Amino acid sequence: MSVISSVLLLAQEPPAPPKVEAPPLDAVWPILIVLGAACVGVLFEAFLPRHQRWPFQVVLTLLALAGAGVLLATYISDAPAAGELAMYGTLAVDRPALFLWGTLLALSLGAVLMIADRSVEPGGAFVASAAIRPGTVQDRAQVAATGMQTEVFPLTLFALGGMMIFCAANDLLTMFIALEVLSLPLYLMCGLARRRRLLSQEAAVKYFLLGAFASAFFLYGIALLYGYSGSVQLADIAASAGGSDRSDTLLFAGMGLLVVGLLFKASVGPFHTWTPDVYQGAPTPVTAFMAACTKVAAFGGILRVLQVAFESTNWEWRGVLWGVAIVSMVIGAILGLTQTDVKRMIAYSSVAHAGFLLVGSIALTDKGLSGTLFYLLAYGFTTLATFGVISLVRDSSGEATHLSQWAGLAKRSPLVAGVFTFLLLALAGIPLTSGFVGKFVVFEAAIADGMAPLVVVALVASAVAAFFYLRVIVLMYFSEPAAEGPTVTVPGAFTTAAITLGVLVTLLLGIAPAFALDWAAGGVFAIR
Amino acid sequence: MTGISVPGTNLAMEVQQASGAAGAAWLLLVLPALGAAVLLIGGRRTDKWGHLLGSGTVIAAFVYGLFLFLGTTSLAEDQRVRDLHLFDWMPVNALDVEFGLRIDPLSLTFVLLITGVGALIHIYSIGYMADDRDRRRFFAYLNLFVSAMLLLVLGNGFVTLYFGWEGVGLASFLLIGWYQGKDFAATAAKKAFLMNRVGDVGLALAIFLMFKTMGSTQYDVVFAQIGNQSTATVVAIGLLLLLGACGKSGQFPLQAWLPDAMAGPTPVSALIHAATMVTAGVYLIARCAPIYSLPQAADARLAVMVIGAVTLLIGCVIGCAYDDFKKVLAYSTVSQIGYMILAVGLGPAGYAFGILHLLTHGFFKAGLFLGAGSVMHGMNDEGDIRRMGGLARKMPVTFITWTLGYLALIGFPFLSGYFSKDAIIAAAFSEPGNRGWVFGGIALLGAGLTAFYMTRLLILVFLGKPRWKDLKSEDGRDYHPHEAPATMTIPMIVLAVGSVFAGLVLSGMLPEWLTPSIGPLVEAHGPLSHGMIAVLTVAISALGAGLAFLLFGRGEQPVTRPRRVSFPVRAARADLYGNHLNEALFARPGTWLTRALVYIDNRGVDGLVNGIAASLGGSSGRLRRMQTGFVRSYALSMLGGSILVIAALLMVRFG
């Protein structure tokens, strides 16, 4: 904490004069609603009897998401096209930020539905009291009981609020605080799994330790950049970098550290090491939430930092991020080949996708921005539904995630196998799915910005990655079912709704992506 | 070359908007797609009538295609190229990808081939797959394939084409792996998919390059502007498209998947891996005639010719050594597509002949495959030709239809292959200078080899002594060869009639009919007259066939294949080391890379496995020890990455 406070002290000098006189709240109402509902949710936990908490929390969370969505929609209809600064210049509410907010709210809706489901896993995927030592008598008793930890709902809302602030943050300190607000609830939620809780808690601790490590990088980067430009505002850093005789060592070392912190959150290789373990260990609804929403928020931050603060120095850093993107795509595509666990495989797939997204992010053009935003939207929904389907295939000990258990699934449950095949094809980028359109717009923007060799690598990587998606399809359709294989649970209304949402959006964005591409291309960052 | 090129701009400006009956051309795609959807979603409920629905949709598409064809022939020649706009797929910024269809002579030719041969093979499959529990699913996949293939040829832009391109790849993958119990089927399916992906990367890059340089991927815009591009761009696009064509059409160096694809059911081999999908590469290059005809694209076209010539020789040579009925036919397909690629590489002097050979080949090769299927159907699914012999008496219809297809393939005078293959050989000879002698010579040599291996096949399967009498099949049954049911023989008869007459009927009309799409046929004349080349070709083919009769027609043939053979035969049996080449170039480095990465990542993976074991065993002490170890190593890798990133940044700045 001393690091934080010292940086806060550094930032004590009066912030840049507010560009807007009174804080106009109408731009930030969605965030206020989400965070406010989270606080109310905490009060529910404190004052409601145990058995009433679940319905109250579910209704509150869904209402908050819907309310935030409605307010966002009404605001967008008459928002200034160039965007505006809110909360004394700490938040830049511009078109990309609004697009990301909408994406985050919609994805969270799907994730919350999965979190709220109590039919797939009797009582829900979350244990009532995670503090009981795993493996003890009390623990076995509570695994069998149907109580559920309802604090995950406010935690989800807090994380969502942090993500929304994160992609609109206009200065690095706000960004850092948002990063912590979004991360801390996630660390907790990772450790709450009802089944295989040791693995879950191991994942939570790993995520926490490595996340703290990455936060330290991020913070150190902020300090160096402050030393360089005397400000933490993205626009001021850009102005200093544009023309000054200050030490470039501070600038690039600071930028490197800052970007590493961001790449960690986005699980871009080689900073991906936590991803497979955490994706596997966390309760599947939380994995879905992380895989979809954290990715969106992290890339929202990366896009903003690169395009607003560091655009003028892109000649120096672009080559380095080329390398990072290549490493990420190669790691994701090749290590995905040898995975034997579905959740780990999708984790490596997300590392490869992070590489593709990075390709779009370093194309510093309007097309690069809109392509990456669209890709985030498309990927978020696909991956959400993917984890939804994964949560359905179960045996007596919980989810059956080992690939060998998926053999011949198509014979047992053709519908689930068909839906999963469609989602895998979307991840592989086959036409008629959103994955194809997303890859197309991102690679096309990269080519237009002179990154043809990188696109060649990306295409080869996606060809390799297609292979491991295909392996699962082969396994489901072409193998004999295992004798004591898992059964497919008939999902309740909540999970069904979440999967349907993801599949429909994946299909819609594959067939008629025009409207979403228009939204994504609606405008650029407020300050460039 | 005679120096005449087709100006791409002229072709592009004649595009009309489709209306009337052509306005419903989307029906062509929707009918089979609907069939596939009903069969897949309906599940077991549709088992009883699924095969009828599957065949019905394709027949309906064929009938509609016929109407469309007749309607187009009644139009004036400059109005025959029509676009049907369906909807804007990805309209954003400068990127405007529309989803539309192009109805022109070239695409209609393919529509008739795909739906016509497709319908026959659907009918054949009713009989062939009668014993399969999942016949309904088989028809669903076939319908899916037909729909995707029609999209491939009907799309009016490269992205739409790519869409169909991936679709046929997927359907082909599903069908190659049909016999799930057999390991080699799954391996073959994967191999096909992967080698196709290599080609797809080429096609995708070509599309991106077009977009970058010309701002669009629609045919009309690209073909109108390609002439203004630099030579480097045109050659690059040409070569990348060729890579795509090589993948899909089984051309050197990506030919190895096609013979393995014969692991699928025989109707699939006939429809997808002989008549339609594998000709997509030929279609692609013919469709891109405005690109390849440019003077700047001369180098790319030379590359096309070289690939075609090399492949046709490879296919023939390997075809001489194989003992598996379908694999010989597969290598024959590889080599015949080599002829087509060679032809379209010749430019305006060859496009029409390439398509002509594609059509005639569609008839006789599909017929030959169906014949092979009929033989195997009657022989307990035996594919080894050394275990056959003397089947002509047992299967008269199969024998006669097969022989007609065989004669058509080796270019027997006045049958289909005679018109199409001779035209290609003559056009190859008319290339200027030494090129003419080289390519013409190779094409001529190929004709002789084709006659040799096809005659060998004919003798070993249908003539000679019935070697199967004393043998049992793998599952221990005796062989009782018998003629196939009518649903199988009728398509064979229809295709045999096509093999006999298609060349005669088409060779006169086709070049003129295709002119609006690919430009007029340029008559080229080389040092040898056409008559002389025809005589030469027939003579060399006769020589090849005669040699085969001398070698295999007399005396006993061993039932197992001889082990001690000369080097050329060994090389041919090993696919001329194509697989070794691929392995050395692609597979082995890939394996090393994977191993290296896995090794680096191993601590994490091992840790996971141990972690599960530990959590199951409840040994928390052990787990804790491991856990710190892993986080430390993860953190170390992050630190290493960060140092690298920062060092690189600073080096770029100050270095």
SSE order of chain A, one letter for each helix or strand: HHHEEHHHHHHHHHHHHEEHHHHEHH
How many individual helices of chain B?
24
Strand order of the largest sheet of chain A: 4-3-5
- What proportion strand of chain A? under 5%
Separation of termini of chain B?
53 Å
The helix content of chain A is over 70%
Domain module tally of chain A: 1
In what range is the share of β-strand residues of chain B? under 5%
The backbone outline of chain A, from C-alpha atoms, is: globular
**Strand tally of chain B, please?**
3
Q: Please count the helical segments of chain A.
A: 21
How many strand segments of chain A?
5
Given as residue ranges, the uncertain stretches of chain A (5+ residues, pLDDT < 50) are: none
Topology, pairings included?
The complex is a heterodimer of chains A (528) and B (655).
Chain A: H1 2-10, H2 29-47, H3 50-77, E1 84-86, E2 91-93, H4 95-116, H5 137-144, H6 152-168, H7 172-190, H8 197-229, H9 234-242, H10 248-265, H11 274-281, H12 284-309, H13 314-337, H14 342-361, H15 366-390, E3 393-395, E4 398-399, H16 409-412, H17 414-428, H18 434-448, H19 452-478, E5 487-488, H20 493-511, H21 514-520
Antiparallel strand pairs in A: 1-2, 3-4, 3-5
Chain B: H1 8-13, E1 16-17, H2 26-42, H3 50-73, E2 82-92, E3 95-103, H4 105-128, H5 135-154, H6 158-176, H7 183-214, H8 219-225, H9 231-249, H10 257-260, H11 266-275, H12 280-287, H13 289-292, H14 298-319, H15 325-345, H16 351-378, H17 396-410, H18 416-429, H19 433-462, H20 486-518, H21 530-552, H22 567-573, H23 578-617, H24 620-654
Parallel strand pairs in B: 1-2
Antiparallel strand pairs in B: 2-3
